[in-house]
Structures are given as C-alpha cells and as structure tokens.
Amino acid sequence: MKRFLKYLILIILFTYGLMYFLDLIYTELYRNGHPRNKLQNELKLKDQHYDIGFYGSSRIERHINCELIEKLTGKTCVNLGFAGANLADMKMLAEINKSNGVTFDTIFFQIDYNYNFENYSPYFLANLAPYLDEAFVEHVFSKRDEYGYYKWIPFYKYMRNEKVLGVRELISVLLQTKNGRNTNIGYRPLKGVGLAVRGKFPDSLKHQNSKVIGLEKLYPSGMLYFFTAPYCQNIQNREISLGLAGKIKNYRNYHDLFDNNAEYFYDCGHLNDKGAEAFTEQLIFDYNF
Length: 289
Description:
Elements: H1 2-32, H2 38-43, E1 49-55, H3 58-61, H4 66-73, E2 77-79, H5 87-99, E3 103-110, H6 122-128, H7 135-141, H8 147-152, H9 156-160, H10 162-165, H11 167-175, H12 210-218, E4 224-228, E5 251-253, E6 265-267, E7 270-271, H13 273-287
Parallel strand pairs: 1-2, 1-3, 3-4, 4-5
Antiparallel strand pairs: 6-7
Helix pairs in contact: 4-13, 5-12
C-alpha cells in the first residue's frame, strides 16, 4: 500500500511538473512568437500613435479602409476590428492597447445590436489566456466559473482552448509556418454583391451598457465617437438602432445610408469593397478628418 501511494504521489508530481513546464513553454511562444491570427497581432501592438483608430467587429474590419483615409487626409489610421467582436472584447482590447502605449487623437467604436450584450466572446477569451498573469486579464477571468482551474492548474487554459491555442497552433508558431489566414492588422475588403440576411435586431434595446460607460470613462468625450455602420433594408428591426442616439454620446447612425445602393452590399450586414470605400469617404466628410 505504501509503495502504491509512493508511486501515485510521484505520478501526480511528475504530471503537475510536466503541465507546469508546458504552460511556461506555451505562454512564452504565444506571447512572444509569430502571431497566428489578427487578434494576436492586435494584442501585441505597442508604443504606436495613430491620428485615427477604429474598433469593432467585422463591421469595422470589412468597412473601414484606413489606406484610403491616409491617402485622402494625410493622417495615420489603424483598423483594429476583428470578426465576432463583442463590446466587451472591444473595450478590453482598447484597454490593453492603451496600457501598451498605443495612443490616438480620435477613436471610433462601431455599435449596433451588440449594445444589448456585455459578455466576452469565447474566441477573444481564448486569445487572452496566455496573458492571465496580467492584472487586467486576470480580473476578466476572475468573474468566470472556471477561474480556479485557470489560475491554479497549470496548462488548463491551453487544454480548455485547444481549438485556438492547441498543439497544432503551437507547432506552427514555433516553426513560423503560414496558416492561410491574414494576420495583418487592418482592412479586409469583401468582393461580390448580395443581400443575404443573417440574424436580426432585438425587439428593444437595454437601458444601458456598462462597457459603453466604461469606454466613456476611458477616453475624453472630445476624442471618442460611436457609430452604426450601414445595413440593408432586409434585416428585421434595424430601426431599433435609432434608439442608440439617446443612450450614447457622440453617436451617429448610418444604418440606412445605402438604402438606394444595393450594389454596395456583400450581404445585409456587410459592405463590399465598393461600399466600404464609399462609407469610408462618408466618414471622412462627416468627421472632417
């Protein structure tokens, strides 16, 4: 019995030590290795100043042509949108960028029915996992049911997020192999024309969103702006977005901007490259970049 317990303890200690070692290796490579996706690149952005910055989901990533802004205005611009981003993701990314010395003269956030949601997206949390020892990241995970596992069990955060941070991705980081994904920060145009509808607006908007309130505290009102990018007419309840004007400071609504320009849409919620160029030019005019 004693021999069995001895071997059991040795196995447990060996397993724990191996997991601890793997955790160190994974963390080092994911934090300092070659980025495997656009968000990882955005999280590593440091010590940069831009005249204009944009945060949001694919409705920023696919809509804001910063090269066009720089060409027409002479001002520096960065598009920090990424697909699937929630408001909580945008705020946390902005906080991380700010703590890393990324500054702006003017900053924009795209907002729509995501005003009703305050949770972080699973994809965003997975990419945050290697930064768990950072206080502001630990604060996010501390509110989750699995926090104890993340904090006290080495390597758990990588097993839990294997699809984003698994062995295959680790080897690719180590070897710096290409994965077919564009990891560059910035605008990604869509080609084609269509009005396919995915989802709908809710029937009503919540009274307030703590993430928006947090952003208003993070940045002075003279540099912080919000807007809703265009939708096609086919999406249900899109007029609900008009109510955002009474809830958010420095807000503009463009949901119906291209109602007479179906050729500008890739699908109902995203502009194609032609539409993105027209929308970018509209923002340049309206905000006098």
